[in-house]
C-alpha cells in the first residue's frame, strides 16, 4: 500500500458512513471497482447480481428456466423456498453467496446461470423480493452495492451514485480473460453474444431497466487501469463528503 493510499484510507475511515451505489453494464468491472472502494473505506460490499444469479441457479435446478426462457408462474411459486445470505470468506475478505445454506459463489458464475439470469431477473416478484432484501442489508449505510438498479430503485437517496460503462469490445475481452483465468471454458464469440444480449434485455425490460440515475456520476473505464479508477474515486468521494 502506498503512503497516499494509506493516509486516504485512514482519514476516510473516521468519516461518516454513507451509501455508495455502483450500477452499469455487465462486465465493465463493477464488482472489482466496488470491492476495491469498499475495502479502502472499510465498508460492506454487496454484489446484488449474485442474488439474481442465486435465484436463477435455484430455478435452473428445478427446470423452471432454460434456454433464456423462464416459467414465471413456477418461479414465483418457488420464491418462498429461497433464502439468500452472505458468508464472509476470511481469506479474501469478501462475502460469498449462500443459497439455502449452500455456498454457491462459484456455481452462480457458470455460463448456464449467465445465459438465464436476465430472464429470471425480469420477473417483477423476483425483483420485489431481492430489492427488499437489499434494502434490509444496506439499512445502516457504510455499504457499497453494485448492480443495475441500485441507484435508481434500491437506494434512490444514496449519497454517492456511480454509473459505470466501457465499450462492448473491452467488456467482452475482460470477461473472456476472466473466465480463462478461472480455468473455466471460454469462447470469445459466445461471451460477446451474452454481453450484447444482456445489455439489450437489462436496458429494455419494463421493470427497473438499467439506466443511469439523474444524479449518478459516469465512470467510463474503457481506457483506465484499476489504479486510475481509484484516483478518480478518491477525488469524487472527498468532494461528496465536502458537499461540493
Ligand atoms: O452483475 P451480474 O452480471 O453478475 O448480474 C447478473 C444479472 O442480474 C444481470 O444480467 C442483470 C441482473 N441484475 C439485475 O437485474 N439487477 C441488479 N441489481 C443486479 C443484477
How does this structure look, described?
The model has no long low-confidence stretch (mean pLDDT 92). It contains ten helices and ten strands. The protein has a single domain, classed as P-loop containing nucleotide triphosphate hydrolases (Rossmann fold). Strand 6 and strand 7 form a beta hairpin. It is of the alpha/beta class and 244 residues long. The structure holds 2'-deoxycytidine-5'-monophosphate. 2'-deoxycytidine-5'-monophosphate binds next to helix 3, helix 5 and helix 9. The site of 2'-deoxycytidine-5'-monophosphate (DC) has 14 residues, from helix 3, helix 5 and helix 9.
**Rg, alpha carbons:** 18 Å
Please indicate the percent range of residues in DSSP E strands (runs of 2 or more). Answer: 15-25%
| Dominant shape | globular
Q: What compounds sit in this structure?
A: 2'-deoxycytidine-5'-monophosphate
As for the number of domains, it is: 1
Spatial gap, N to C terminus: 28 Å
Q: Tell me the CATH topology.
A: Rossmann fold
Amino acid at each position: 500500500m502506498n503512503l497516499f493510499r494509506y493516509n486516504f484510507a485512514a482519514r476516510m475511515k473516521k468519516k461518516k458512513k454513507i451509501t455508495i451505489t455502483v450500477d452499469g453494464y455487465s462486465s465493465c468491472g463493477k464488482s472489482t471497482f466496488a470491492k476495491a472502494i469498499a475495502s479502502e473505506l472499510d465498508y460492506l460490499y454487496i454484489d446484488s447480481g449474485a442474488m439474481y444469479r442465486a435465484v436463477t441457479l435455484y430455478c435452473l435446478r428445478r427446470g423452471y428456466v432454460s434456454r433464456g426462457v423462464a416459467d414465471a408462474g413456477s418461479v414465483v411459486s418457488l420464491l418462498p423456498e429461497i433464502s439468500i445470505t452472505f458468508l464472509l470468506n476470511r481469506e479474501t475478505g469478501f462475502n460469498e453467496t449462500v443459497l439455502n445454506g449452500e455456498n454457491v459463489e462459484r456455481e452462480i458464475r457458470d455460463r448456464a446461470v449467465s445465459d438465464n439470469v436476465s430472464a429470471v431477473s425480469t420477473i417483477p416478484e423476483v425483483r420485489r423480493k431481492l430489492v427488499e432484501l437489499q434494502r434490509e442489508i444496506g439499512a445502516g449505510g457504510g455499504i457499497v452495492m453494485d448492480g443495475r438498479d441500485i441507484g435508481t430503485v434500491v437506494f434512490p437517496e444514496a449519497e454517492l451514485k456511480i454509473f459505470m460503462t466501457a465499450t462492448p469490445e473491452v467488456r467482452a475481452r475482460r470477461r473472456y480473460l476472466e473466465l480463462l483465468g478461472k480455468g473455466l471454458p471460454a469462447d470469445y464469440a459466445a461471451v460477446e453474444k451474452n454481453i450484447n444480449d444482456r445489455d439489450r434485455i437489462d436496458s429494455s425490460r419494463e421493470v427497473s431497466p438499467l439506466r443511469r440515475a439523474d444524479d449518478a456520476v459516469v465512470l467510463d473505464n474503457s481506457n483506465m487501469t484499476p489504479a486510475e479508477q481509484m484516483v478518480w474515486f478518491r477525488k469524487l468521494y472527498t468532494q461528496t463528503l465536502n458537499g461540493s
